[in-house]
Each structure stands twice: as C-alpha cells, then as structure tokens.
Amino acid sequence: MTELRHLYSGKVRDIYELDEDRLLLVTSDRISAFDVVMAEPIPDKGRVLTAMSAFWFEHFADVVRSHLISTALDDLPPECRKPEWEGRTMLCRRADMLPIECIVRGYLTGSAWKEYRSAGTMHGTPLPDGLLESSQLPEPVFTPSTKAEEGHDVNISFDDAVALVGAELAERARAISLELYSRGAAWAAERGIIIADTKFELGLVDGELVVADEVLTPDSSRFWPADQWHPGSAPPSFDKQPVRDYLDALDWDKQPPPPPLPDDVVKATRDRYVEAYERITGRSFDDWPGVNRVGA
User: Fold this and answer.
1) How many angstroms separate the CA atoms of 155 and 144, rounded?
2) Which of 10, 17, 165, 167 is 20 to 30 Å apart from 193, CA to CA?
3) What is the pLDDT of residue 185?
4) Which of 221, 197, 273 shows the shortest CA–CA distance to 29?
5) How far are the Cα atoms of 19, 58, 67, 279 from residue 4, in angstroms, in the given order?
6) Dihedral, CA atoms, 236, 241, 246, 252, nearest 10 degrees?
7) Burial class of residue 286 (count of CB atoms within 10 Å of its CB; 0-12, 13-18, 19+)
8) Quick check: bond before 78 cis, omega within 30?
9) pTM score of the predicted model
10) What angle do CA 241, 189, 289 make, to 5 degrees?
11) In terms of Cα–Cα distance, which of 40, 38, 41 is closest to 257?
12) What local confidence, expressed as pLDDT, does residue 2 receive?
C-alpha cells in the first residue's frame, strides 16, 4: 500500500506525497480575503478550481505539458479514495518549481495600477501617459514576482527574474506564459469574460518546463464580465467579490479572527465560481464528480 504523507497545506490546497515521483493535490473549499482565511468554506469551490484547471490543462496541451496525471479517484491508491475528495484531487508529477510567479497582465489593475498611479510605471517599466484604472494595455505584459514564504509577493523586473532562474528559463517561462494568457483570454472573450490578469506556476519535470498547480481559475486570475468593463473603474469579478464587498462594509481591521460570513454571501460567492466555470468551459458543473447539489 502506498504511504500517504502530508507535505504542506496552503490557504486552499493540501499537498501529499505518494512516492518520489508523484504528488496528490487536494483543493479545499477554504477562502481567504485580505490574506485571512475565513471560517466558513465556500461549497464546491475546490471542485470548481480543479475542474477549471483540468479543462485548461487539456486545452493548452499543444502549447505546454502540465504536471497533471489524473483527476479521477479511481486512479489513486485505495487510501486516497475518500468520498469527500471526489472532484477535488489532482494526481500530479512532482515538479521542481520555479522560484517566481509568472504573472501576465492584459489590463491595468491591482498592484500594477497602484504603481502606475504613483510612478507612471509597471514593474519599473514606463507606460504611456493617460491610462485609467482597468485600461487595456497595448499588449499583454509578462510581469513576474517573487514567491514570498510570508507576507506578500514582491513585483520584480524581467532582469530580476533572469537573475533568479537564468536567461534561458526566464525567456521560456515568459514565452509560455504570454501564449497561455493570449489564447485563454481570446477563448474567454468569445464567452463574454475578460481575463484582466493571471498567475501561472511553472516547474521542471525531467528537465522539461511544464505548467503546474492551477491555470486560469477565479483564484489565480481576475475574470471580469465584458459587458460591465469600463476604463476608469474596477469591474466586479467572478471570484470572491461578494466576500470582499461584505468585509469592506464592516468595521474590521483585516486581522484574524475574521468576522462570520452570512449564508447569502457564501451562496453568492459559490454562484460566482460556478458561473465562471460554466461560461468559460461550456460545461455543466453538475456533471463534475462529487458536486454538492443540496441548496445549490
């Protein structure tokens, strides 16, 4: 029997080691806001992230291989076939992950907007004058960051990325990230969704650069409804927006413990995630294994 060893738990994912070559990623329903994990889970959130990543891994297979082997419980050792894990597991090849976040921005928002507003630059590179919040950039830009063990990641220049991983790997990571973003954004645009920016995780498997972790999900990307996008304001997003909006309206210092989330906020957030999956993939989320249909 394969021994299941717990390696790590993040804000959302739990990682287990099956053997020296394979890992098991289990995506939970945990949700964080302002870097604080909420007490209430979002039903089926982990299944949405798993289903959407599996869709994109397959969709991008002609561009780059992924670390994914299978999302089926039947492909796991018997001790891993837990009913509560159905639809939220990824059996993966172990990868030597790059020490950078491979971020691609197509629109000026988030930390990039804050930097532009104060300095007229994005990751230190000058941008044209007169851009507004949520403006579309002339072309998608690769804007890497560090991976912080604690606190926030730090935006870095491409030259800084080269210093961390070497010129060849940095160039390859940039080319792959830009291609994945451009193709994904075009696919989503046909379905009425703007992908404003996203974060890819890349790593090496047997010397080959692969895409890993999650791809173009509501947790790793900003999805905007195209019909609500107007430069000069921040559109609502298909993710934890109901949670953020609720918490922003409270007198909370953004430090643990978090305030409880009302049932309607939890349901609205679940609905956002499910809608993003169904609009982008064209598939019914009810067809994904293990979906909780009670009260959905």
Assistant:
1) 6
2) 10
3) 98
4) 273
5) 8, 27, 19, 36
6) -120
7) exposed
8) no
9) 0.94
10) 65
11) 38
12) 55
- 273 vs 84: CA distance, rounded Å: 19
* H or E stretch at 169: helix 167-189
Nearest partner of 105 among 137, 148, 57, 147, judged by Cα? 137
3-state class of 24 per DSSP?
strand
CA angle in degrees (0–180, nearest 5) for 268-112-131: 100
Neighbours of 156 (CB within 10 A): 20
Q: What is the mean pLDDT of residues 111-130?
A: 93
pLDDT for 251: 95
> How far is the C-alpha of 103 from the C-alpha of 290, rounded, in Å?
31
CA atoms of 225 and 41, how far apart (whole Å): 25
* Cβ–Cβ under 8 Å, residues 60 and 215: yes
Distance of alpha carbon 240 from alpha carbon 245, whole angstroms? 9
* pLDDT mean over 267-291: 96
AA identity, residue 38: M
Antiparallel, parallel or unpaired: β 5-9 and 13-17: antiparallel
Q: Which is nearest to 59 in space by CA: 281, 279, 289?
A: 281
**Residue where the block lists tokens 């430069």:** 231
Q: Are 176 and 142 in contact (CB under 8 A)?
A: no
The tens digit of pLDDT for each residue in 198-254 reads: 999 999 999 999 999 999 999 999 999 999 999 999 998 888 989 999 999 999 999
Residue 229, token pair as written in the block: 């996008």
Find, among 239, 194, 192, the residue nearest to 219 by Cα: 239
- What are residue 270's phi and psi, to 5 degrees? -55, -45
